[in-house]
Specification:
The complex is a heterodimer. By secondary structure, chain A is mainly α. In chain B, helix 1 packs across helix 5 and helix 5 runs antiparallel to helix 6. Classes of the chains: A mainly alpha, B mainly alpha.
C-alpha cells in the first residue's frame, strides 16, 4: 500500500506522458522556428572554444578542432543558438524548481554510498559523457532526441548506443544506485 | 512557411531570442518531469523508475508526428530542416562512451544543467566533468579524428535506410513505443522502490 506521503511525492512530478508531449512540442517548435532541434553539449563546446580563443589564441588558430569550429561557425562562439537555448534551460529549470519548491543545495545520492563517492562518479560520468558527446556529434538532446524527431538514422543509432551501453554497464555500477 | 529563419520570416536576432524562450520551455519541462534528479534518471537502468523512457519516447514521437503533419500541410519545408548526418563508427563508439557516462554520472548534459539549476551539487560536478571531457576531446582531436570521420553515410533518414515511407516508419515507432511503455509500467510494479 502506498502511504499518503509517497502519493504526495509522486504527484509533485508531472505525468511523464504529458511531459513527453510537451517536450515533443518544444522540439517541434525549435525545428519550425530555427530548422534545427535542441541541444545541450554544443553550448559547452562553444563556451570552451570561446574561452580558449581568449586564453590561447595562437593555439586555437592552429589546432584542428578549434580551427574547424571557427571555419564552420565564424564570429563569437558564444553568440550561438545553442548557447542562448541553454541559458533558457537554466532559467526554465530554475523557475520549475521554484514552483515545485525543489530549490535546495544538496548532493543527491543513495543512502548506501557517501556524498564523496557520488561526486567522484558524477565527475567521471560528466567527463565520459562530454567526451562521447563530441565523438558522437551530440548528446541525448541534440543527437538522440532531436535526431529521432527528424527521423535521422544517426539519431536512432545514437539512442540505441547510449541506452544500450547504460543498460549493459548498469550491473557494474549498481551499488551507486540500488 | 517554416523553418522561419531559413525563409527569412524572422531575423537572426529574433531567432536567438526565441532560442532563449525555447530553452526556458525545455528546461521547465525537463525539471517538471523529474529529470533534475539523478536517482530518478538512473532508475531507468534498474527498472524502478522508467520516467526517462516514457518522456523520451513520447517526446520523440510527438515531434516526429508533428513534423510529418507540418510537412504534409506545407507549413514546413523539410529540405531546410537539419538532419543529423550519420557517421556509423563515431556514433556507435560515442554513444557507448555516453552510456557509460550516463550510468556513472546519473545525468546527461541537458538534465545535468537542469539539476544544477535547482541546486543539485552532484549535477554541478557532472557539468564540470562535461567541460573537462569536451576539453580533452578538443585537445586530443588529431588522435581520434579518423574515428570521428568513420562510417560516413550522409544525412540519411532511417525510413530511407529501411526502404519504407516516413509515415509507415513513425507508425511502427509508435507501436514499438507502446510496447515499451507497457513493459515499463510492468517493471515499475515489479521492482518497486522506497522513497528516494
Amino acid at each position: 500500500m502506498e502511504t499518503q506521503s509517497q502519493q504526495g511525492r509522486k504527484t509533485r512530478y508531472m505525468n511523464p506522458y504529458i511531459a513527453g508531449v510537451l517536450l515533443g512540442l518544444v522540439v517541434l517548435a525549435a525545428n519550425f522556428i530555427a530548422g534545427r532541434g535542441l541541444g545541450a553539449s554544443g553550448a559547452v563546446k562553444s563556451t570552451i572554444v570561446a574561452a580558449m580563443e581568449k586564453i590561447a589564441p595562437q593555439h586555437t588558430a592552429t589546432a584542428t578542432f578549434y580551427k574547424d569550429f571557427g571555419e564552420s561557425h565564424g564570429g563569437n562562439p558564444l553568440n550561438s543558438w545553442l548557447v542562448y537555448q541553454m541559458l533558457g534551460v537554466l532559467v526554465g529549470a530554475f523557475l520549475s524548481g521554484i514552483i515545485a519548491r525543489r530549490l535546495t543545495w544538496k548532493v543527491e545520492h543513495s543512502p548506501k554510498i557517501t556524498s564523496k563517492r557520488r561526486l567522484v562518479f558524477a565527475l567521471l560520468g560528466g567527463i565520459f559523457f562530454g567526451f562521447g558527446s563530441q565523438l558522437g556529434r551530440g548528446c541525448t538532446s541534440g543527437s538522440a532526441l532531436s535526431g529521432m524527431a527528424v527521423l535521422s538514422l544517426q539519431g536512432f543509432i545514437s539512442m540505441m548506443a547510449i541506452f544500450g551501453a547504460a543498460f549493459t554497464f548498469a550491473y557494474f555500477f549498481r551499488k551507486n544506485w540500488i | 512557411m517554416g523553418p522561419l529563419i531559413v525563409n527569412e520570416i524572422i531575423s537572426e536576432n529574433t531567432n536567438l531570442l526565441l532560442a532563449f524562450f525555447i530553452g526556458i520551455a525545455f528546461g521547465f519541462v525537463l525539471e517538471q518531469a523529474g529529470f533534475s534528479s539523478s536517482r530518478k534518471l538512473a532508475g531507468m537502468f534498474y527498472g524502478y523508475d522508467t520516467v526517462v523512457l516514457k518522456v523520451f519516447f513520447t517526446g520523440a514521437i510527438t515531434a516526429a508526428l508533428g513534423l510529418l503533419f507540418f510537412s504534409l500541410f506545407g507549413w514546413i519545408e523539410m529540405d531546410y530542416v537539419f538532419v543529423n548526418p550519420t557517421y556509423l563508427g563515431s556514433t556507435i563508439v560515442g554513444g557507448v562512451v555516453m552510456g557509460l557516462g550516463f550510468i556513472m554520472g546519473g545525468f546527461c548534459p541537458g538534465t545535468g544543467f537542469c539539476g544544477a539549476a535547482i541546486g543539485k551539487i552532484d549535477a554541478l560536478v557532472f557539468v564540470g566533468g562535461l567541460f573537462i571531457g569536451i576539453f580533452i576531446f578538443a585537445e586530443g582531436f588529431p588522435l581520434w579524428e579518423k574515428l570521428y570521420l568513420s562510417g560516413f553515410m550522409g544525412d540519411i533518414t532511417i525510413s530511407k535506410a529501411l526502404g519504407i515511407s516516413s509515415g509507415v516508419f513513425v507508425f511502427l515507432l509508435i507501436l514499438v513505443a507502446a510496447g515499451m511503455f507497457w513493459v515499463a509500467e510492468w517493471a515499475e510494479k515489479k521492482f518497486p522502490r522506497e522513497e528516494y
